[in-house]
Design brief:
membrane; transport; 3 domains; alpha/beta; ATP synthesis; translocase; 434 Repressor (Amino-terminal Domain); Bovine Mitochondrial F1-ATPase, ATP Synthase Beta Chain, Chain D, domain3; 16 helices; 11 strands; ATP synthase A/B type C-terminal domain-containing protein
Amino acid sequence: MEDLRLNVALLRRKVPNLTTAARSVGLRPATVSNLCTGKIPVGRSEVRTLVALAELADCSLDELIIRGEKVDMIETKIKVLDLFAPLAKGGTVGLVARPGMGQVVVLAELFHRLKQDGYVTAILLPEVESPDLNEIIDSVDIVARSIEEAYEEMASRGKESEIIFASDRSHVVSGNIQELQERLEAVGVNTVTTLLLDLRGEAVDEDLPYGPLETLLQFDADLAARHKYPAVNPVYSTSSVLEGAHLDQQHLSVQQRAQKLLRRYRELRSLVNVGGLERLPATEVQTYKRGERLEAYLTQPFYVAEAFTGQKGESVALQDTLQDVRKILDGAADSTEVEALTFKGKLSLEV
């Protein structure tokens, strides 16, 4: 099948308030969001939905739908991100979390890792001072206090280096981020990957809190409460990189099998919390235990947290993550204690 995806950049430019616009023509914002991130493939969407989006953007279907263009992935070596919600290079990534779920730590870790890979790191400070960002600022290459300052700094450095850029949602709501992206593109800066945070935690209650996104990182309150960090929800987080032709089939197969297991594990966990493991049918016990091990494996020590946790940060290459997850899915780790998989890097050689 021909590789198809939405022109998210065009939607972002033409329809700034996509949530309201979608509702006004009878579209569910959640459906539009899933189309943008690739959770719903364009080839399986309803024609009327695509026509309505084209009308909102005042463009043709040919302009709205991009054919055959590959979306490159940024390999972060963070297991849960690379497997379930890869960062789309040059795209816009939205972090959806309430305060205290760890989104600022994930941002700090991404900056740390990608800076090691040669990226220039940049942040546009929110209009209201946020103490959460103070520890990040000292290690960031570009700290801008206005849109104009951010533009000037990134325009001068972005033609030679790839940039990872972060901003708070307050600048998205005002339309400043869309304007900044357009200005940078106009001067030939096309390698800015934008991370959008919501430091106030308001985005959790909205279907399209940032407008169209290439990657959505949905944080999970239950994982955060149980200290299963990074508390990124592997079921609801997604990325346009996951659309068929953008991944090799091994990645897609492992990702889909892992999501299926974790979805069922979460259902079973609610029963276990109430009645204990004996409440489960015998046929479901294995599913529950493998889901528990996979959830534990997806935790990971971060470099930026070493001083607080006393644990050395770990990087796991995507191919190692795929091999390890496949082993867990196939039962090769069934005899391994959950604790032995928690906050580790690769599976040990004994598994």
